[in-house]
Amino acid sequence: MAKIILTLRLWRREVRPTIALALPIVAGMLSQMLMGLADTIMVGRVGVVPLAAASFVNAVGHLPLVFGLGLLSCIAVLTSQAYGARKPAEAGETLRHGLVLSAGVGLLAMLSLFALHPFLDRLGQTPEVVAAARNYLLIFGVSLLPALVAHGCKQFSDALKHPWGPTFVMLGGVGLNVFLNWLLIYGNWGLPALGLEGAGWATLIARTVMVLVLMVYVLRAPALRVFHPPRWWAAFQGEHFRRMLHVGGPVGGQHFFEVSAFTLAAVMMGWIGAEAIAAHQIAINCAAMTFMSALGLGAAACIRVGHAYGAGQFRRTRRIGFSTVTMAAALMGMFGLLFAFAGKPIAALFITAPDVVTLTAQLLIVAAVFQVADGVQVTAISALRGLSDVRVPAVI
Question: Whole-prediction pTM value?
Answer without folding.
Answer: 0.84
